[in-house]
Amino acid sequence: MAGTSQQVKEWGRHFVPEQRDVGAALAALSEDDLLRLRAIARLRARSLPPGGMTWSDLLHEAVLRALAGARPWPAGVPLLAFLAGVMRSLCDEQWRRHRRQYDLPTSHDGGGADDPERACAAAEALAVIQRLFASDEAALKVINGLISGMAAEDIRLHYDMTAVEYDTTRRRIRRAMLRHGLTWSWP
Amino acid sequence: MTPMSYPQTRLTALLDALERELLAAQADEVRHAWRETGRARSIVCEEVRMLLNEAIAEGEGGSGARLPPNTCAGLDRLIGVSRELRPAARGHYAPAWSCRRH
Asked: Chain A closest CA to B77's CA: distance in Å?
């Protein structure tokens, strides 16, 4: 995927108010950003414990935390990127709550690596996302590269993809993720 | 550092990367994807806006303010989703997380 500097440049296209007024910034979000936010919440909800929060609960709670200042909004970070980070933290928090709720042993690893239930849920979520791209061989290669933690250049070299192939594949992935983030259906 | 062989580590890597893609998506890509869904853009935007407004109202309501456990009951009415389809409505989780200042 794109390098860090490129991401910052791309995020910079979005509205970044000088004042850290979360409420005002939320009210100022464009329709495109609302759709993007929905897709991000639905994506991130894939890593929640089963039978718990929904994507809308996750987004609601993230906004509450941001408004309350429980998660300070760092200067220079676009609102959507900030809320995405809050949602990510909430997912980890939900797993900790889940373990406490069912009196399961506390995970000793921050990422819950020694949590069999979380591992199982993660494997299922990975399979669901891979199925989304089952008919797109190139997309599946990129997805598998990302799953393995590979950088963009590594993925291109590993799968012998040209820069153009890689970029068009990324574009298809983005559109598929947006499409599935905007509809109710997600396999 | 957690090894990449763990499913949750792999899922985190993928979600982080896909999230970056969504954040970086151009406006025309969002619109194109939107057209492909065939859904009414205004309804979905209103759905998200309503969700945000609920949270803003709750956030501004002080510590005593708290929405019902099904925080999106109004949202569901708007978009015609049965409560029975929602995990919370089935009582699958206690909303201990919800609406609390941390």
From this structure: 14
